[in-house]
Write a structure and sequence with these properties.
It holds the Pfam family Radical_SAM. One of its GO terms (molecular function) is metal ion binding. Keywords: 4Fe-4S, Iron, Iron-sulfur, Metal-binding, S-adenosyl-L-methionine. It is a single chain. 29% of the residues lie in helices and 16% in strands. By secondary structure, the chain is α/β, with parallel strands linked by helices. It has one domain: TIM Barrel (Alpha-Beta Barrel). The strands form 2 sheets. Strands 7-6-5-4-3-2-1-8-9 form a 9-stranded mixed sheet. A two-stranded antiparallel ribbon has the order 10-11. Strand 5, helix 6 and strand 6 form a beta-alpha-beta unit. The chain is globular. The model has no long low-confidence stretch (mean pLDDT 96).
């Protein structure tokens, strides 16, 4: 299959320093995508006949990149999504959002006090920015961008979820995404709400979220509350690839950067995995390499071990990092919580 969706990380830099962010476990310095590299990528993307959708996002905050408005304009021929923390909106940027972006996904993890504790920023600034955007949409008689809000839920902020849904509904949201936290350090391992076994009270809590969304007219996309057998990778199934800020072509956000994650109390080293670099080959040529095609087939067909619920997991050295698994696959997806829908990816 050809590439249908590209997730483009313009920068892995961010103007915030959220408590639960994966960036806290990185050793690499943050950077913006270089000019020559971005030019090459944009020229390739606008000429791709099979491409349907582009997500401008990644682990950084794309609106801090100096060429963000140009990028949105160049890619507006496709279905275009922007993920953002909603803090860095100028009037010029809001105009570009209305003119070029189909869907705007804003991260919002709690009401005022909790939001500040997590993000170190005032929630009211984000609310005011959204209201200004909505007013400008009315002035320009535009229904886009559609507003989507995403919450990373944990024991720290779960008490805010229903009032937060009330708020985003009032702000005109069409969707509300609730993703479980994936801890980046052992300090946060006890913050998770999900479990390996069925917990009736958590199942009921997640069902209340669904029901509240229905009352508020929100399409709720909700992670699971417990580990289940089914495994589905949205990146592979949707013919999606990721280009990180360094120009590496990676299969998903998980392998875009090296860092640490904690899976049910086990610390795991994530090794970045690239199938090629955009300055060395075209994106389509990298997509068609034997290694990348073999990887996608392996994931799509579920030909990899289920490490998370394996009886030997506590004694296995292979689960300490993502280098390889006991089937010989490289990299290893056996512990991925995204494919279990415990963590939600866009």
């Amino acid at each position: 299959m050809a590439i249908k969706k590209v997730n483009l990380e313009l920068t892995d830099r961010c103007n915030l320093n959220c408590t639960m962010c994966y960036r806290k476990s990185w050793s690499e310095a943050p950077q913006d995508m270089e000019t020559e590299m971005l030019d090459k990528i944009l020229n390739e993307l606008v000429g791709m006949e099979t491409l349907e959708e582009v997500v401008v996002g990644g682990i950084g905050e794309p609106t801090v990149h100096p060429r963000i408005m140009e990028v949105l304009e160049r890619l507006s021929r496709y279905r275009l999504m922007l993920t953002s923390n909603g803090t860095f909106f100028t009037e010029d940027l809001m105009t570009a959002l209305i003119d070029h972006v189909d869907q705007l996904v804003i991260s919002i993890d709690g009401l005022s006090e909790v939001f500040f504790d997590i993000r170190g920023f005032e929630l009211q600034v984000v609310i005011d920015n959204v209201k200004k955007l909505n007013a400008l949409k009315i002035t320009r008689n535009s229904k886009t961008p559609q507003l989507v809000f995403q919450m990373v839920i944990s024991k720290t902020n779960k008490q805010d979820v229903f009032k937060l849904m009330d708020l985003v509904s009032e702000l005109g949201a069409t969707q509300f995404i609730v993703s479980n936290i994936l801890p980046a350090s052992l300090e946060d391992k006890d913050l998770i709400l999900y479990s390996e076994n069925d917990v009736p009270e958590m199942k009921a809590f997640y069902q209340r979220i669904r029901n509240h969304g229905l009352k508020k007219g929100l399409e709720v996309r909700l992670s699971e509350s417990k580990l289940k057998t089914e495994r589905r990778c949205r990146f592979v199934e949707n013919d999606t690839t990721v280009i990180n800020a360094k120009g590496d072509v990676t299969p998903c956000y998980r392998f875009a950067h090296s860092g640490t994650e904690v899976v049910f109390g086990r610390s795991k080293k994530i090794e970045a995995h690239s199938f090629g670099h955009v300055m060395a080959d075209t994106l389509e040529d990298i997509w068609e390499t034997d290694a990348y095609k073999k990887y996608r087939a392996m994931v799509y067909d579920n030909h990899y071990p289920s490490c998370t619920d394996c009886d030997l997991v506590d004694g296995c050295d292979l689960v300490r990092d993502t280098t390889s698994d006991c089937y010989g696959n490289m990299p290893s997806c056996g512990d991925c919580l995204w494919v279990r829908n415990l963590v939600y990816c866009i």
